[in-house]
From TrEMBL:
Name of one Pfam family that matches: RNase_T
SUPFAM superfamilies according to UniProt: Ribonuclease H-like
Signal peptide bounds: none
InterPro entries: 3-5_Exoribonuclease, ERI-1_3'hExo-like, Ribonucl_H, RNaseH-like_sf, RNaseH_sf
Residue stretches making up the Exonuclease domain: 5-177
Protein known as: 3'-5' exonuclease KapD
Keywords assigned by UniProt, alphabetized: Exonuclease, Hydrolase, Nuclease
Length: 202
């Protein structure tokens, strides 16, 4: 992946008060964390985002994410979020799980905005296949399995995006250890300079 442009993205979303969702409810992005990488970190971005369909947060949502209505009311609009994300639209999007991409697509569709990314990698699936796990592993459990700690606080979008990036680096490093070296060529096995010198002296 040398030289590749990668965008590690994490969102937090609105939640209904209970399993019984209000009519027309769908999860809306209320916080974004983005880490843009090319060789190393080039840019990070973090902001709250104001929902439009259901602008008032439920008590469950505020409690689970530890956010206030005032936090969200002071955030950027979804349109402003998309203007920011379009700066990275040539990058490969990397998320932990597929929920972030599903919600972004749904929010784009609801707003009549074209979804900006062409390529996406679900790092949780890659982690699952790499380690042969039966089930997908949670983000912070995955980083702890490496003997590391997650960055900042869980369920803060930028912290989770940075943690995803850190797992990515660890997994990519492990993959390199498993790459089989190419079989030696005859040139590797025979020192032709010595062979030619021996032939010329005979």
């Amino acid at each position: 992946m040398e030289g590749a442009q990668l965008l590690f993205l994490d969102f937090e979303f609105t939640m209904p008060e209970s399993k019984r969702k209000p009519h027309g409810f769908y999860p809306e992005i209320i916080e974004v964390g983005a880490v843009f990488v090319q060789e190393d970190v080039q840019d990070t971005f973090s902001s709250y985002v104001k929902p439009t369909r259901f602008p008032l947060l439920t008590e469950r949502c505020k409690s689970f994410l530890n956010v206030s209505q005032e936090d969200i009311d002071g955030g950027i609009s979804f349109l402003e979020l998309m203007v920011k994300l379009r700066q990275y639209e040539g990058a490969t999007l990397i998320t932990w799980g597929n929920m972030d991409v599903r919600v972004l697509r749904q929010n784009c569709e609801a707003a009549g905005i074209v979804y900006p990314f062409q390529t996406h990698r679900d790092l949780s699936l890659e982690y699952k296949h790499f380690f042969g796990d039966r089930n997908q592993t949670g983000l912070w459990k995955a980083i702890e399995s490496y003997g590391k700690k997650g960055t900042g606080k869980h369920h803060r979008a930028l912290d989770d995006a940075l943690t995803t990036y850190n797992i990515f680096k660890l997994v990519e490093k492990d993959k390199q250890y498993l790459v089989k070296p190419a079989p030696p060529t005859i040139g590797d096995r025979v020192d032709f300079s010595k062979l030619l010198k021996r032939v010329s002296t005979n």
